[in-house]
Amino acid sequence: xxxxxxxxxxxxxxxRDELQLNKEILIRDKYIEAVGENLETPENCKIIDLSxxxxxxxxxxxxxxxxxxxxxxxxxxxxFYSDGMRALAAAECARKALAGGFTTIRHIGWFxxxxxxxxxxxxxxxYIEGSRMIAAPHFICAPGSxxxxxxxxxxxxxxxxxxxxxxxxxxxxxxxxxDAVRHEVKIGADYIKIMATGGFFTPNDSPxxxxxSDDELKxxxxxxxxxHTTVTAHAYTTDLCTTLANMGIDGIEHxxxxxxxxxxxxxxxxxxxxxxxxxxxxxxxxxEEKLAQKSPEFQKKLRHYRENxxxxxxxxxxxKIRLGYGTDLVVGYQNxxxxxxxxxxxxxxxxxxxxxxxxxxVNAEILGLADKIGTIEPGxxxxxxxxxxxxxxxxxxxxxxxxxxxxxxxxxPHSIIDDYE
Length: 421
Prior knowledge:
Number of helices: 15
Shape: globular
Number of strands: 16
Strand content: 15-25%
Distance between the termini: 42 Å
Helix content: 25-40%
């Protein structure tokens, strides 16, 4: 049995919307034993002085595509990357995310096999160091959809068709998708991810496309729920988000083109939304330099939908929807730069405490881990981060980690800021 006492400068505990002073955290082995002032110091207790930092729960990113090394290489994925290469990339993403103060990430699937469940297990077993991973290993999707990476090689139909056969959860029909969900649960998926609509990143579809039928969507959601597994969907529009909410879906990723009426429905049904502001920030805030890093098709769609994106962001920001924190970085930044979303939320006028709560307590609920992580209180894992910047005013604060601990074990922190300066 070992004890650690952390002396905090300021403390955000994930419970109260305030920064508390004069607080200490007593840790026994993996768990937080006490939080308070002037706590008793057990014999042989290690003291960690973070009086110069703001201490928070370990942060949680609920929308990470972990299985690539560099965003500039993604277009090569369909042909040139092996499954093993993606697995190595997922492990590296988890390692770097942890160093950035994000002790948990939700891997939200990839276009091809990436053995993310094996990476998750290796981390859980202590063989490799990295953020705790909650994983949906495969997109549930249809051919030609936003989840189909063979769009990139559609000009070679024979090769594209062959590559489709390598994807175990891409198909058509309610029966196919029932089986796909059962297979995902069998192999250990923590939740189910549906590609329900087109997107901005893929070249040959639109964010307004509905890419699965109502029968297919209902089969996926009902089968997952019958197996006690939650479901989230990549979806943008009012019509599709309304359909999914009425079918009983647990969550929606993006919801970036919704209206007020749909927002009220999501509140009523308590459907969480992970809005992923960061990938659309350059069009909402008109950053032409970052826009230029995206493909011509991506830029064209962003410009076409700009007014709707701006309006829907205000609706989400002013709503009472349970908003989670997720980055969805695939262009312009690396997948482990999880603090980028904090910058997006603050620069768009979001209350910093709501942002911090989204990245801690709310995300812990979304991931089904609220009894283990997300807050600093007795009985929770000792997942703790420390930050030298002002969390309430500095939008770059979560890119500059000074201390990180996962389950009572310190890791070497890393500042993303240093990579760019």
